[in-house]
Design brief:
about 525 residues; mainly alpha; SusD-like_N; globular; TPR-like_helical_dom_sf; SusD_RagB_dom; two-stranded antiparallel sheet
């Protein structure tokens, strides 16, 4: 695979750097003209903004998110095919190309390999800031590569243009952990870091000490689970779970970064953390740890992050829609009202906070529940003559890690190492906040499954479900019939990972295709 970049496009997103006025304009004829562009703080900030822009665009393309999205009905043909593991869909380039992930890794490596050129113009703290950001994005991308494709490639830097063979999934996750640990050591707390002009970086897409800790908690939890599923020889699952607990505890205790804390109740959680894409509001979002920054143009077009919640939301958030719109194909994922009523029994406040008047709408005969977790749409005027508007997206970012999820991830790992008391305490912390029945409640079976269900309820429409399912080895019962029909050999051959896109094999005879997808037609 040749990942050499012949063109770097630098885009200044207002949402990521509102003070960015000088863009690094690099159109290199060769690599040398790229590496000469690291002279000072503003140029490095330009590269960092480019990386963040790449992440904004790519993060929405993970096919595992629609594969695992909770719903009673999916009205999108492509997503239905993904959920059904239909090879003709899974193998198309839109769902199988990893190029953009390696673009981010390449740009991150450019910073790490050339930042010494700016040492005479910058303080040591600023050098550490850029190195920390580069290690953070590298670690994040390797975690994604390891979870999405498994046996991906670990590159050796920007100077090596030879073909690469596959690394193992075990090695890719280890590479993610290595980079995220270096990022944690170098980065400062969220709310203290500044851009090249001295302005506070308020977007939570940038790396921070807390965001690195959150990704490490997830990386170790995934490592332990995959060590058990695939019998990784060099990883102790129990040690990995304990490491995840340690990183989760740093966030919960405040050791990793002071600004994080649970909101007092569900309505406060929504208003403080979920309801706004504007970076200026994120300092008050104490429960949100890592986000993919959304962005709208001045006319409200755009919406680059494409949050999963948009695939569920229609009336009453969309002011141009009616109650009947939920029956149409424009609304991809739908929950029946009865499902939501059963999911949130008793006094659980999330039922009424996440969905619009579920009980009364069901009584009136409406089959589906109307999502209301994000309550404000973003509207663009499409007719100046009539004032007609079109909802172009939701007023939110894509929250990637939230502290409530970290409590439940720690609970999951406690349960897996046999510490039921600690697992129950974390589980009930989240249930108590929602005024749900504490564990053990009448509907609870075993503790690990109760924790999984709690993540499903708490993080409804927050893109985590596929990886929660796989991490807990519930893919045969919690995903589609296609997953239920997978054999143990299918799993070992890579059915839970994606097909590697054909473009990766250009001029590369060392790279090997996923065994499962190589034998499916």
């Amino acid at each position: 695979m040749n990942i050499k970049r012949y063109l770097i496009l630098l885009v200044c997103f207002t949402a990521l750097a509102s003070s960015c006025t000088d863009l690094l304009d690099v159109k290199p004829e060769d690599r040398q003209s790229i590496t000469n562009a690291f002279d000072d703080d503003s140029e490095l900030m330009g590269f960092l903004i480019t990386i963040q822009g790449e992440i904004q665009y790519m993060i929405q393309d993970d096919p595992h998110v629609p594969m695992g999205a909770g719903a009673d009905r999916c009205d999108n043909v492509a997503y239905s095919n993904l959920r059904g593991l239909v090879p003709e869909t899974v193998k198309i380039s839109l769902y199988s190309s990893w190029k953009e992930y390696y673009d981010v890794i390449y740009l991150s490596n450019l910073i790490l390999e050339n930042i010494d050129q700016a040492e005479s113009n910058m303080t040591a703290d600023r050098i550490d800031f850029y190195k920390g950001q580069a290690y953070f994005t590298k670690g994040w991308m390797y975690l994604e590569l390891g979870r999405i494709w498994g046996n991906a490639i670990i590159t050796e830097g920007t100077n090596n243009f030879e073909a690469y063979g596959n690394s193992t999934d075990e090695e890719v996750i280890a590479e993610a952990i290595k980079n995220l640990q270096m990022a944690y050591e170098l980065l400062d707390e969220y709310g203290t870091m500044k851009d090249a002009n001295g302005n506070l970086l308020t977007s939570k897409q940038y790396g921070s000490k807390g965001a690195a800790a959150g990704l490490l908690a997830h990386a170790y939890a995934w490592q332990g689970s995959m060590a058990e599923l695939y019998n990784w020889e060099n990883v102790s699952a129990q040690e990995a779970y304990n490491n995840s607990i340690e990183w989760s505890t740093k966030l919960i205790s405040g050791e990793a970064s002071a600004p994080y804390g649970l909101s007092s109740n569900i309505e406060a959680m929504l208003s403080e953390n979920i309801s706004s894409w504007d970076p200026a509001t994120r300092l008050a979002a104490q429960e949100s740890i890592l986000e993919v920054q959304n962005f709208y143009q001045t006319d409200n077009s755009g919406g680059y992050a494409d949050p999963l919640a948009e695939r569920y939301t229609t009336w009453p958030v969309d002011l141009n829609a009616s109650t009947s719109y939920i029956n149409q194909s424009q609304v991809t994922f739908k929950y029946k009202s009865s499902t939501i009523q059963n999911m949130y029994p008793g006094e659980d406040e999330r039922k009424g906070a996440y969905f619009y008047k579920v009980d009364s709408m069901a009584t009136k005969g409406y089959e589906f529940a109307y999502p209301y977790k994000i309550r404000e749409g973003v509207f663009r005027v499409v007719s100046q003559a009539t004032g007609r508007t079109l909802m172009t997206g939701l007023n939110c970012n894509e929250i990637y890690i939230r502290l409530a999820g970290i409590y439940l991830l720690r609970a999951e790992c406690y349960a897996k190492i046999g510490n039921a008391a600690a697992a129950t305490q974390d589980l009930n912390t989240i249930r108590a906040r929602a005024k749900a029945d504490l564990y053990p409640a009448p509907e609870d079976t075993d503790l690990q499954y109760a924790i999984f269900r709690e993540r499903e309820k708490e993080l409804m429409m927050e893109r985590t479900r596929f990886y929660d399912v796989v991490r807990n080895n519930y893919f045969r019962t919690e995903l589609s019939e296609a997953f239920a029909n997978l054999t143990n050999q299918d799993i070992q051959d890579g059915a839970l990972y994606l097909n590697i896109g054909q473009d990766a094999f250009t001029n590369n005879t060392l790279l090997k295709q996923n065994i499962y997808w190589n034998r499916t037609e």
